[in-house]
Amino acid sequence: MQNEKLINWLFETNAFRVCPGNEPFWYTSGTIGPYYINTHFLYGSESSAVELLKTIDRLKQDRLDCPGKLLGIMEERYGENAVYKGVIDSLLDFIRDNIDVDEVDYVSGGERRDWFFSLLAAKGLGKPHITIYKDLSAVISENGKTREAGTINGGRVLHIADLITEASSYERAWIPAIKDMSGRMTCSVVIVDRKQGGSELLEKHEVCSFAMVSIDKSFFDKALAMGRINCAQHDMLVKYASDPHGSMKAFLEEHPGFIEKALRSDERTRERARLCIEKGIYR
After folding, report:
1. What gap in Å lies between CA 271 and CA 26, rounded to an integer?
2. Would you say 157 and 106 are in contact if contact means Cβ atoms under 8 Å apart?
3. What average pLDDT does the segment 189-210 reach?
4. How far is 239 from 247, CA to CA, in rounded Å?
5. What pLDDT does residue 80 have?
6. What pLDDT is stored for residue 21 in this prediction?
7. 109 - beta bridge partners?
8. SS3 of 191, please?
9. Domain-by-domain residue ranges, the chain?
10. CA–CA distance, 13 with 129 (Å, rounded to integer)
């Protein structure tokens, strides 16, 4: 079942943002679509999440010092922001309901957005935290101290991520990083699964995959019932989920002035519309 509280928080913080029914968003790739997901906004707000990302970029220059300082900042936020506290508490409940925590030796999170959730989850579960950086280096925090990862001698790892799409980050970075330290990623928990093949890829790597919320028709149905979206938005979301390219191609055919309007809009929108035309994405 979908987590109703989490759905509310996704909309409340703009972590899940839906376009008007006749005005899809322009994406960087030159494609269009009906929603954005920024799961890290569940830190309480967009502004606070962006500020934390800036802090991470500053603190990660010292790999050993970074996790401890971030944990302190996040603990303070947990104590003062009801949404972030609710998300972390729900995450811990979800993990305990779906995974035998006694079968987990470490909790890991990858740079950067995973850390919004993995650091506090590790503390709540009483497990050492493996902080993985983009260059595949890693450090382990335990009992208030942080050390270079070294080897974990076959340790079983639960990876926590903010979002899974196609699991490319897992395949490229997080799973190899754990293997490099002689560990084994046995399971993954994400806040949001975009249902674009990521969980299936993890299964091929023998990683059990769990998601608190999946972006699918049942999610859209519940959002409609909760009054978070209207019927026009629901219709567009459902069509897009079943056929992203075809549904947006049909939209453009039904709204021939949409691209022309974009070409008269702000510079960022114009660039994305031009890219769409140049690539012939919806021909």
Report:
1. 10
2. yes
3. 96
4. 6
5. 98
6. 81
7. 131
8. strand
9. 40-218
10. 27
